[in-house]
Amino acid sequence: MKNIIINTFVLMLIVSASACVNKEKNTKSENKEDINITQNHSDVFYHYSIWWAFVNKVFEGDITAGELKTKGDMALGSYNLLDGELIMLDGKLYQAKEDGEVLEPNDSLKVVYANAAFFDVDGSFKIQKAENYDTLRARINEQLPSKNFFYGFKIKGHFKYMKCGGLNKQTPPFQEGLDVLIPNRPIFERENFSGTMVGFYCPEFIGNINVAGFHFHFVSEDETFAGHVMEFEAENLTVEYDKMHEYQFVLPQTEAYDNVGFDKEFQYKKK
Fold first, then answer.
1. What is the dihedral of CA 153, 157, 159, 163, to 10 degrees?
2. Which of 73, 133, 98, 141 shows the shortest CA–CA distance to 268?
3. Signal sequence: where (predicted)?
4. 252 close to 49: Cβ distance less than 8 angstroms
5. How confident is the model over 119-167, as pLDDT tens digits?
């Protein structure tokens, strides 16, 4: 009888120890999964559609504004039919229309092209004065740890002058590509106000998949002025950047993309 009691007690200890080990393993596994999710969010550059297709009159995509919000909390791009510049800041989407109006789009609105990321600050620095776009790019180039990676940016400050470009809404059948539309885009200007530039840097090896170098969009603090950044003069800038080493590339599943010919090549000024 004594042996039975002892054996039963030993068996209970073994079962209890095994349960503790399994619980610890599961906890570690769950924690590891949580860590990976956080790291993936901060390290992934999400890219929808190819720049070369966008240049060659593929102006309709199959991802919605709501879906794009699941890919990042900052973004830039354009909506279907080029119906406004796309800007996302701190998880909020903006649509800068061709007449200068700035709206918060419905989640069902479709996106033709976008770059997005979950912004995680890896570094920051101040710029007391930036006379122009070239000055800003030069200062950022001095600060980046390496130009062989992808970066996201938030640049906040006071803007003595800002010139933004929009896009004219298109109707099918599409006649012109970005090589014609961008030089003839609507222009918006404003002086003495505060706001934030959001954007990305892609290394030169990106080729025609995306915009090489820097690409910035902008939204004012009062949310009434936005668009693609063209020229500016600013002061008291805070530059935050997120270094990313993973690139998620998603192509549209549309008839237009199926049949596009990559005939034209067009890039913004590379720097």
1. 20
2. 133
3. 1-19
4. yes
5. 999 999 999 999 999 999 999 999 999 999 999 999 999 999 999 999 9
Contact (CB, 8 A) for 249 and 47? yes
Provide the CATH topology of domain 45-259: 60s Ribosomal Protein L30; Chain: A; (3.30.1330)
CA angle 41, 44, 46 (to 5 degrees): 110
- Predicted TM-score (pTM) of this structure: 0.83
Q: Identify which of 173, 169, 178, 177 has the alpha carbon closest to the alpha carbon of residue 255.
A: 173
* Domain parsing of the chain, residue ranges: 45-259
CB 163 within 8 A of CB 230: yes
Q: Tokens 């004012």 belong to which residue?
A: 220
What single string gives the DSSP state of each residue in 5-51?
A: HHHHHHHHHHHHHHHHHHHHHHHHHHHHHHHHHHHHHHHEEEEES-H
- Model confidence band, residue 268 (pLDDT cutoffs 50, 70, 90): low
Whether residue 39 is predicted with pLDDT greater than 50 in this model: the reply is no
